[in-house]
Amino acid sequence: MASKPVSVPAAKQPRALSLHIGVNEVSAAHYEGWTGPLAACEFDAHDMAAIARSRGMKSTLLITRKATRSNLLAALRKAAKALVAGDFFFLSFSGHGGQVPDVSGEEDDKQDETWCLFDGQLIDDELYFELSRFARGVRILVLSDSCHSGTVVRAARPPGGSAQRPRILPPAVGLRVYAAHKAFYDQLQTAVAQQAGARVSDPDTALANVAVSTRLTGIVKDFKPSLILISGCQDNQFSMDGDHNGAFTEQLLRIWNNGAFKGSYASWHARIRAGLPPSQSPNLFTLGPSGAFLKQQPFAL
After folding, report:
1. Which residues are catalytic?
2. Where are the domains of the chain?
3. Burial class for 292, CB neighbours closer than 10 Å (0-12, 13-18, 19+)
4. Quick one: pLDDT at residue 11?
5. Which residues contact 298 (CB under 8 A, 6 or more apart)?
6. By the 8 A CB rule, do 81 and 89 touch?
7. Per-residue pLDDT tens for 27-68?
8. Of the CATH numbers 3.30.390.50, 2.30.30.30, 1.10.10.10, 3.40.50.1460, which one belongs to the domain with range 16-294?
């Protein structure tokens, strides 16, 4: 009597979610009269969402007025609860970067970097903490086309009259915003530090120094997911806006070439960087167990 064939269960398809933020202007009511008009951030977000959908990801878009602090935090927390080991999360941000004074004591330059959302700034401590909530084995890709590093405000502004604009909250405006909302931003930093149970380093510093900084060891060793962050520029540079895409996003899309690019994340970053001028050199950081992740093709599930 012939034996029945043994059925082998199909391998679980990784789940993939993405979240794309594009902020072409901010609320004057929350930025002391400044709206910071940009041209290409919404285009960037839509283009990143199109890539995500083409790779089978379920995408969420937060465009300008919908790119609020509460909407972003809710989306991050929902994704963190939904994804498990082997799954994929893609986060992109295009907009202004800013700063608030560091009150939790972890920043060497005494400034916390921010993403300028429509109704207020997201502090880097908050972003780092929210990403640390993802499960072990989840792969997280973050693409940030903004100026949001600690020393970027000390770079010389590019000359006026160009189609490109720096994606940065002007320091004078940043000081006014902080003075008007000091209690709010100070409390955010304190709350994150209390929730984490330790001093929380900002993602740029942590990712840049994870291999060599003993100061960060206690924090980084508990970061469970595998994270790759490619940011639009170096610490002392500007990420530039354009008419149809930011300079970083435009080059990223060109190298990606509608999926024709078949290299790794590491080689993708190198190609993107090579195609931009020396005044804007995208940076690549990793956090968590990301060695195997770096070798994968971008957006591979």
Report:
1. 96, 147
2. 16-294
3. exposed
4. 63
5. 141, 256, 261, 264, 265, 268
6. no
7. 999 999 999 999 999 999 999 999 999 999 999 999 999 999
8. 3.40.50.1460
Residues 6+ apart with CB under 8 A from 134: 79, 80, 83, 89, 140, 224, 225
Q: 284 in helix, strand or coil? A: strand
* Of 287, 177, 175, nearest in space to 231 by CA: 287
DSSP-H helix ranges across 158-227: 171-180, 182-196, 203-209, 217-220
What tokens appear for 10 in the block? 């199909």
Contact between residue 163 and residue 243 where contact means Cβ atoms under 8 Å apart: yes
| Average pLDDT, consecutive stretches of 10 residues, N- to C-terminus, the chain (301 residues) | 53 90 96 94 97 97 97 97 97 90 60 88 86 94 75 39 66 81 80 61 40 35 83 72 88 95 94 86 84 94 93
Q: Residue holding tokens 């999926």?
A: 259
